[in-house]
Amino acid sequence: MRVPIFNAEIHFRTKKILLILSFVTLSACNTTTPTSDANGIKNPHIYVPESYVSISCVSHDGAPYISDFSIEEPIASGPLGGKFAHSPGCGGLIAAGYALPKKWTPGMKVRVRWKPDSREWIEKTTNIMKYDRVGNIYVHFFEHDQVRVVAANSNGASPHHPILSNVTSAPPEEQ
Question: What is the rounded distance in angstroms from the CA atom of residue 146 to the CA atom of residue 93?
Fold first, then answer.
């Protein structure tokens, strides 16, 4: 007598094992993999609360005319690589929807790109000056291609702004 190769019990067990293996495999793909920073230390992905603010620039005496500029959104406690917000030059406030972390952290850096006069584009990385409250972003341009970035609740012409408009040289960069 011949034993049938196909047995319903074996078929059911095989399907059950394959189903369990599928769930294990798919759930392994769904885990959050820590990223490494420049020192090789693993950091989990962290949610950072943000506020969306506008951007503007202030061109101080001695600075060239700025025809275009862009500023990168900071990534708190991480490498550079955020999205860029763009403005067609200084003068006025651009409702750009710039994502600024609600809490300032030391070493928060951004890249700024700008086109002075008819020269080639310049790109520099700078720290965002310390802020206690979220405010609009102001990019300050100075002579010798110096740039500083502040978050402020008062415009660049206000006496309450962190960098006064009559300053002609860039303040020291904060860490």
Answer: 21
Classify 25 as helix, strand or coil. Answer: helix
Residue type for position 119: R
CA atoms of 38 and 106, how far apart (whole Å)? 16
- For residue 12, count other CB atoms closer than 10 A to its CB: 10
Q: Among positive and negative, which fits the CA dihedral 13, 15, 18, 20?
A: negative
Query: Full-prediction pTM beyond 0.85?
Result: no
Measured CA to CA, the distance from residue 141 to residue 55 in angstroms comes to 14
Q: Which residue has the higher pLDDT, 15 or 169?
A: 169
Q: What is the pLDDT of residues 82-125, one digit of tens each?
A: 677 777 777 666 766 788 889 998 888 889 999 888 889 999 99
Check residues 19 and 162 and name the one with the higher pLDDT.
162
Q: What is the mean predicted confidence (pLDDT) over 52-56?
A: 87
CB 150 within 8 A of CB 140: yes
Q: Rounded to the nearest 10 degrees, how much is the dihedral formed by the CA atoms of 10, 15, 17, 22?
A: 170
Query: Is residue 94 a contact partner of residue 41, using CB atoms and an 8 Å limit?
Result: no
Cβ partners under 8 Å of residue 126, min gap 6: 109, 110, 112, 147, 148, 149, 173
